[in-house]
Write a sequence for this structure.
């Protein structure tokens, strides 16, 4: 069998992302807390989050707004600028309140991915509530969090799931 094509790798990642998000929504269903969406991109995941988590405060991080007009977060929930600066400030502001964090900061560059993984791993943990779920397109090393198995039917190494400490 040949190596997966770029199209297939994208498809596998999107399938994994969709399954992981669905699982996470059920996990946090009755738990209070806010959501961090790191990487707005075109806004598709933000649109999914706000549709399935109505009433939740969702804070979105990115360098700039480059999304579909109907997927732009409200100005008071959009944290634009350097992800390191914004995430550090938000982690301090919302210490222990984030019940779901979704990190979609990967690219096709290995150096970029290594840097983003290290940055999120270092800055995100103070924001996480006990039992918080973290989903990522990159492997993370989060202090106090355990790696969890992927939801059934999800291809390995396409997405990564973590739970912070004890629920």
């Amino acid at each position: 069998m040949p190596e997966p094509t770029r199209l297939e790798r994208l498809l596998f990642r999107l399938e994994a992302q969709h399954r992981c998000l669905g699982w996470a929504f059920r996990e946090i269903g009755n738990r209070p807390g806010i959501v961090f969406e790191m990487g707005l991109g075109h806004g598709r995941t933000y649109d999914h989050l706000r549709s399935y988590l109505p009433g939740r405060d969702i804070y979105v991080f990115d360098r700039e707004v480059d999304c579909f007009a109907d997927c732009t977060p409200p100005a008071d929930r959009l944290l634009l600028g350097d992800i390191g600066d914004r995430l550090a400030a938000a982690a301090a502001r919302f210490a222990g309140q984030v019940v779901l964090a979704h990190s979609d900061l990967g690219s096709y560059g290995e150096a970029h991915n290594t840097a983003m993984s290290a940055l999120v791993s270092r800055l995100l943990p103070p924001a996480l509530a006990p039992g918080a779920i973290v989903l990522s397109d990159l492997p993370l090393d989060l202090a106090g969090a355990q790696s969890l198995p992927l939801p059934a039917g999800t291809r390995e190494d396409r997405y990564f799931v973590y739970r912070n400490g004890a629920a």
Q: What stands out?
A: Residues 86 and 110 are 23 Å apart (CA to CA). The radius of gyration is 15 Å. The beta strands are 34-38, 58-62, 78-80, 98-103, 128-136, 145-148, 160-164. The mean pLDDT is 94.
